[in-house]
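Researcher: I've got a protein sequence and the SMILES for adenosine-5'-diphosphate. Could you write out the 3D structure of the bound complex as structure tokens? I'd like something to compare against our soaking experiments later this week.
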Amino acid sequence: MSAHRIIFLNQKGGVGKTTTCVNLGSSLCAMGYKVLLVDFDSQGNLTGAVSGDGRKPTMYDVIVGRVTAQDAVQETPFQNLFLIPGSIDLAGLNVELVGEEDNNYFLKKRLAELDSQFDFIFVDCPPSLGVITMNALAWAESIIIPMQCEYFSMEGLNLLMRTVSNVRKGLNPDIRILGILFTMFSKRSRLNAEVIQDTSSFFPDLVFKTVIPRSVRLAEAPSYGLPINVYDISNAGTKAYSSLAREVVDRL
Ligand SMILES: Nc1ncnc2c1ncn2[C@@H]1O[C@H](COP(=O)(O)OP(=O)(O)O)[C@@H](O)[C@H]1O
Ligand SMILES: [Mg+2]
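Model: Sure. Here is the predicted complex with adenosine-5'-diphosphate in place.
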């Protein structure tokens, strides 16, 4: 067994990367898969969202070689769900890694030993295309791009597509985009529906059929440290993320 290595990528913040990482992960766990979540954002939002506390060692310690990735894996209160926490020190990596040789391949080297132990390893990226995200791109097998259903999102998407095609030319020739995921969809907004339609006609094979609705419960759940399928099993967000999980499995 070798884990599917997926990253959640968008240089824009607040588009649902972390929310998707947690809740897709938790939905896959509910299907019986063993999932490791890696918090690679100095904000540590992913860590809090699964009741993690950023207790050391964190991803920072793993990247700088203070501990092995194996030693940094923590259990969560949720069955089949594991975490390597993030912490504020990750912000320093942008500077610390600059002079290092092969500085884009640290994550790949450090996480390699975990491949045989999980069905999925998810890395939650920060909202930038700096050295941390480049490390994630060098390591990943595939990318999920969460996006809000707004017109301004589409410009960002073009930049992302260019970035990924550059990554394929050097850093990681085998990486692929698993899908574009629309988040925070509001049924009442005609604009939301138009953006999804336009993007789908432009990238017909990429846009996931599942759309994540805007839901207060999805926004509340991380403040209790709970994935949505634990916090509110009957919520529309729970259904959406489990439908996304089935789509993801079908696309692998
Ligand atoms: N479908 C949704 N409905 C309502 N709020 C959401 C939804 N998805 C995410 N949010 C909220 O929007 C904010 C940004 O989401 P987040 O996943 O942290 O984005 P990112 O990781 O891309 O910065 C968070 O407060 C989150 O709880
Ligand atoms: Mg985030």
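Model: The chain is about 40% helix and 15% strand. The chain has one domain: 4-251.
Researcher: Great, I'll pass this along to the crystallography team.
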